[in-house]
Structure formats: C-alpha cells, structure tokens
Write a structure and sequence with these properties.
Layout lengths: L2 E10 L2 E11 L3 E5 L6 H8 L7 E6 L2 E3 L3 H7 E4 L11 H11 L4 H14 L15 H13 L5 E5 L7 H16 L3 E5 L3 H7 L2 E6 L2 E7 H4 L6 E7 L3 H10 L3 E5 L2 E6 L5 H10 L4 E7 L3 H14 L4 H12 L1
Parallel strand pairs: 3-8, 3-9, 6-7, 7-8
Antiparallel strand pairs: 1-2, 1-4, 4-5, 9-10, 11-13, 11-14, 12-13
C-alpha cells in the first residue's frame, strides 16, 4: 500500500481543509487533482507529517502518521510548490543539506548531490548560488533535493509552475524518467494534460472531500462503449428521431448528436440510415471523453450533492467525537 487514509480530517480554525477522507492508494503514479482550495497541498503535507491531523489516521508505506514521520521522511521525497531555500547556498550545498535532513551521512549526501544535479541537468551550475537561478533552474533544483536520498515515493506539488512550454515538457520528461526508474509518484497539478502524460491513476478532491480515485481509463470511459459525434446539414431532429426508433442511445449537445454504441454495434449502419432517408451528414467522428471533461463533470456532480457519502461519513465521525 502506498498510503492509506481513514477518516482523515484537518481544520484551520473554522476552515475544514480535509473532511473525513478515507482511501487506500496502491503503488504507481497518481495524479492529485482539484481546484484551488481543494486540499491537495494539505493532504501532501499531512502524509509527510509536516502538519498534524485533527481526526482520523493515516499510513505512508506502512508507517503511521505522525508517530513514524522520521521513517516516512527517509522513504519519501517532496518537491514543494513554493521556493524554500537560503539564497546564498549553492545548488550542491542545498541538495546535500536536504540529503542530510533525510538521514544520509555527510559524505554520502554530498556525493549524491553531485549525481542528482547532473541527472536533472544542473551539473555545470552546481556551484552557483541559488539566488541567481532562473525559474526553470529553481524547479530542477527542487526536484533534485527531493530525489537526492533515493526515495520510494516522490510527492510533486505543481512541479511545472512558472515554466514556459519547453520547460514544462522537459520537466515532465524528467518526471516520467523518475517514474520509469521505479519511483512511485504523486503529482499534484491543475494542468490535467500533465497528469495524463505522467499518471496511471487519479485522486480527485473538492472542498476537502474525496470525489474520485481510480484509473484514468475508467474515468475517461475508455471501455467497450464508443461515442460517435454526428452533425447534419439541417436535419438533426429528424436523424435523432430515426436513431431512437432504431434503438440507438442518443443525446443532444447543442448542434451535435452523440450516439453511444456498444461493442457489437456498427457505426456504418448509422450512416446507411442517414443515406436511406436522404439526410446529409456534415460531421461524423468518434468522440473522446477527456480527463478535463470527466473532471469538470465530477465537480459539477459533487457541487450538486453537498451531502455526499464522504461528507456524511465525516459528519458522523464528528458527531461521535
């Protein structure tokens, strides 16, 4: 088990940042998604033992939070969203210092710092002071300090923040390489296409509640059901009626008909139906449910159901406390 949460709650005064989250996350690469204020950073810092829980319990790599937080910090790496370094330090000093904080001997931390800085593309800049680094270099050195001690699990909080498109692509390539080397990844990002490039599973939060956890393929509907988008020249209503009469599952979205086909249904028969009734097709192509569309749909469902099962569990737990 990568990490497990049982009714985890965190409050800042009257603000409920985490509202009784219960989930068990398996090893792999996980995208942590949610709008601003959803509780993503709070969840990461809670799992690292950096902030205390107000209720519930959690484990990371089979170690309890916060009782075994030193063991957790030796096994995990953390690339925070915000800059957190002393500007007068050189890159190698900063990275080796973080290695020592993770329990490495001084000489080993210094050796590993050199190796890790070369790995992230900062070998030639390792003796430069951090205050002179560009945004892209700062992001790379933050990644290096999270990797220096060889963690089993790496938490990445908005790792492409402030980067231009080329810098984003290069950072994602690095993260994919880290993943391919066997390191478990938790990537917190508001850029959904980044999560799709790196992660196999997603964990979604909204207003401190768990909205979804599971494979991306399940979320985006990549199964035996297909959706065909159809537009006609001026006969959408007529075609919709014909499709419904022939037992097709049809929904209308603006000027587009979306026809849901099972595995054994043939889209060619739809076209033949239009030809037989002299309906001119202007647009006919498969539709793909993107992660972004699925994400927005889940948020809309969650907003319409404020008393979700997760919220009810939290309320029940608070009532018992």
């Amino acid at each position: 088990m990568l990490f497990a949460l049982d009714n985890v709650q965190k409050r800042y005064g009257t603000l409920e940042a985490l509202k009784g989250i219960t989930v068990q996350v398996e090893p792999g690469s996980i995208g942590l998604l949610g709008p601003n204020g959803a509780g993503k950073s709070t969840l990461i810092q809670t799992l690292l033992g950096l902030i205390e829980l107000n209720g519930g319990s959690a484990t990371v790599l089979d170690h309890r939070v916060p009782d075994e937080k030193r063991a957790i910090q030796r096994l995990t790496g953390y690339m925070p969203e915000d800059d957190c370094y002393l500007p007068y330090m050189t890159a190698v000093e900063y990275v080796s210092f973080n290695g020592r904080l993770s329990g490495m001997p001084k000489s080993e931390a210094f050796r590993r710092a050199h190796q890790t800085l070369h790995y992230v593309g900062l070998g030639e800049a390792r003796y430069r002071e951090l205050e002179g680094f560009s945004t892209g270099m700062k992001q790379r050195v933050k990644l290096a300090q999270g990797l220096v001690h060889g963690p089993e699990l790496l938490f990445l909080d908005e790792p492409t923040s402030g980067l231009d498109p080329q810098g984003r692509d290069e950072m994602l390539e690095l993260i994919n390489d880290v993943r391919d080397r066997g390191v478990n990844i938790v990537l917190s990002s508001h850029l959904l296409h980044e999560v799709e490039q790196v992660c196999d599973e997603v964990l979604m939060l909204n207003e401190g509640k768990l909205v979804h956890y599971g494979p991306i393929e399940a979320l985006t509907g990549e199964d035996d059901t297909r959706v065909i988008e159809v537009k006609t020249r001026d006969n959408n209503e007529r075609l919709e009626q014909l499709l419904l009469e022939h037992d097709y599952a049809v929904e209308r979205e603006g000027l587009t008909l979306k026809v849901h086909l099972e595995a054994d249904e043939d889209e060619q028969s739809m076209l033949q139906l239009a030809v037989d009734h002299e309906i001119q097709i202007r647009h006919f192509m498969p539709s793909e449910l993107t992660l972004e569309a699925a994400f927005l749909g889940l948020l809309e469902d969650d907003d319409r159901a404020p008393t979700s099962s997760n919220a009810k569990e939290s309320s029940t737990a608070e009532a018992r406390a």
